[in-house]
Amino acid sequence: MAENVIEIDGLTLRFGSVPVLEYVSLTVERGDFLAVLGPNGGGKSTLLKVMLGLLKPDSGTVRVLGVPAGEAGGSIGYLPQHTHVSGSFPITVLDAVRMGTVSTGLKRIAGFGGGQDEARQSRRALERVDMLDHAHRALADLSGGQKQRVFIARAVVDDPELLLLDEPTASVDSRSRNSLFRLLAELNRDMTVVMVSHDISSLASGVKSVACVNRSLHFHKAPELTGEMFRMGYGGEGELCCPVELVTHGDVPHRVLGRHREGDES
């Protein structure tokens, strides 16, 4: 029997009187690569923050890596949605990754710098994402895709068991996006991956299962969207909604759209 790394049961969360997530249940097995899809404002990023323990649900239970959410510490790597770096901020690629190590972070809080072990650890992480040759460049000088690789290196520098990513490809071009998907598929060999996205093309490479979130959640243990999931996440009713199926081989998914109504040739 597969081991569960995430177990959510009956989760409900409100911001004031506004329901954001309602009666959500989800189980993620070790080694899975889960894409969390859905419209903007549907609760995807909120769900990720609940997994991290940054937000507490109003009801329901959340366990991550066998403990309550927020208690797994360095066993979780996290890439937030917004990772803007000012062009005037003087930090190198290597130092940015070193800030992700638990020991270096604690030392800097206490007023001490990180040591050689942290530097070696960070170089290994940069090598893992094919960015070691850029270790001493200024982070602000990198392209969008290169920066995302550095931030992913920072998220995996402590070899986490679980990697959580919030819209990792939102700010990069299509070539960099496909390259990042291949990188995440490689990382998935060593860790469970949960990736939030609003882009259904994220199913093109490496994803093993899908959760569609729009206040409620529908899970499918395969890299495809069912008609029910698409209607729940993206709207439409009956014949007015095109059923969507994604064939997930190659760099770009093939989309097969059914007819809207009988006799429609479009």
From TrEMBL:
Transmembrane segments: none annotated. One of its GO terms (molecular function) is ATP hydrolysis activity. It holds the Pfam family ABC_tran. Keywords: ATP-binding, Nucleotide-binding, Transport. Belongs to the ABC transporter superfamily. Residues 6-240 form the ABC transporter domain. Gene3D superfamilies: P-loop containing nucleotide triphosphate hydrolases (3.40.50.300). It comes from the Bacteria. The keyword Cell wall biogenesis/degradation does not apply. This is ATP-binding cassette domain-containing protein. PROSITE patterns: ABC_TRANSPORTER_1 (PS00211), ABC_TRANSPORTER_2 (PS50893). SUPFAM superfamilies: P-loop containing nucleoside triphosphate hydrolases. The keyword Hydrolase does not apply. It comes from Pseudodesulfovibrio alkaliphilus. The lineage of its organism: Bacteria, Pseudomonadati, Thermodesulfobacteriota, Desulfovibrionia, Desulfovibrionales.
